[in-house]
User: Fold this.
Amino acid sequence: MMTDDEIHDVEIRLLLEGIHQVYGYDFRDYAEASIRRRLSHWLAESPYANFSEAQAHLLRERPLFEALLAGITVNVTEMFRDPLFFKAVREQVVPFLKTYPFVKIWHAGCATGEEAYSMAILLHEEGLAGRYRMYATDINESVLQHAAEGVLSIGDMQRFTRNYQKSGGKRSFADYYTARYDRAILAAELRKDIVFAPHNLAVDAEFGEMHVVLCRNVMIYFKAALKERCLRLFDDSLLPGGFLCLGMKENLERRMPSERYTEIAPGTRIYRKHYDRTA
Ligand SMILES: C[S@@+](CC[C@H](N)C(=O)[O-])C[C@H]1O[C@@H](n2cnc3c(N)ncnc32)[C@H](O)[C@@H]1O
Assistant:
């Protein structure tokens, strides 16, 4: 006879299978401990005694599923997260980007948009305003709505200012937003060249001819097979000579297509795609 915990795990697997078949969202290849923790938390707050009971509702009531979806993705982010990463982009990636007439950048798993806005600030300071288009995508549509508004919490501004300064920012961070009550509204010029759109890394296709792809702190939640799908997608999206940027806890080591990439400097987690695909 199975224990309660084992039955709980079976129910989770059945629910993830059901969600995939009904809604097309594939969480079956997410790291188990993290998804189990988040689902169990959702269940504890719900009126249902177990996932078998919840499943009947989740598979029929889309708004209930949307609420679950919002709860199971980790959307933590910040402006100039890992400032030294942005410093490396400024000093070692931007000089190459300047050689192109127009630059295309994809932020996969952008959450509420802070990473894309940080990049916009950096590109403006480096003279690339009007010469780029950014695609910022996420599976979670409610964070995308938030992202498109370009509104931050005023309480975060001190921390974001420190990050900005450490990343080699050239102006005053306050130049980029207008404070209104408890909110900081980002300048419209930063928003205008960013397209926020839904995209699911588990099932959707690549974005063509990108110069830079960033996917930071997203694949840490995925199992190996899904990580590999993502890396194939990014490889297919990037132009030769393009840059793939991962989170500080992620790397390309031993993972395909590592033989086609070189980290621009140790520990930056910025990988440049070789020009010769056979190299
Ligand atoms: C921790 S946030 C990372 C945000 C930002 N890249 C950063 O590093 O600050 C992870 C994001 O990945 C998104 N995500 C999770 N699964 C996804 C999938 N299958 N396709 C696209 N985005 C996904 C989540 O919704 C969440 O917004």
